[in-house]
Amino acid sequence: EELMRMYQEGNEAAFNELFSRHSSMVYGYITKRLRHEEVDDFYQKVWRHLHEKRALYHNQPFLPWFFVMIRHLLTDEYRSLGRQRERAEALRQKEDEAKAFDLDELLERL
User: How far apart are CA 29 and CA 71, in angstroms?
Assistant: First the structure.
């Protein structure tokens, strides 16, 4: 908690210590919840989000507060990834339909 208060006041060494203490736990938590290729970008997003939202921290136990924040980010990420996957699937279907149409057109010409 003291490290987070120091970080809020602009102490870069406090952030470095928070990162050092919790980075492997955060990475492991994320690894169990996202695909391998999604982990590194999201991991960076977590630490950037901590920096952006550090003013919201108010003398509470740090780890529960931090992991609630991570859970909320994961929820947003799942929604975003779901929409991306839906769009990719729709695009694949359109491409398949276009290929099938082209094939039908070619067969008719024969």
Answer: 10
Rounded-to-integer distance, Cα 30 and Cα 39, Å: 6
Find how far residue 23's CA is from the centre of its chain: 15
- Which residue carries 């924040």 as its tokens? 69
Handedness of CA 13, 18, 21, 23 (dihedral sign): negative
Q: What is the pLDDT along the chain (110 residues), one digit of tens a residue?
A: 899 999 999 999 999 999 999 999 999 999 999 989 999 999 999 999 999 999 999 989 999 999 999 999 999 998 888 877 776 677 677 666 655 555 556 566 66
Query: What's the CA gap between 89 and 96, in Å, rounded?
Result: 10
Residues in contact with 31: Cβ distance below 8 Å, sequence separation at least 6, in sequence order: 39
Neighbour tally for 98: CB within 10 Å: 10
6 close to 30: Cβ distance less than 8 angstroms: no
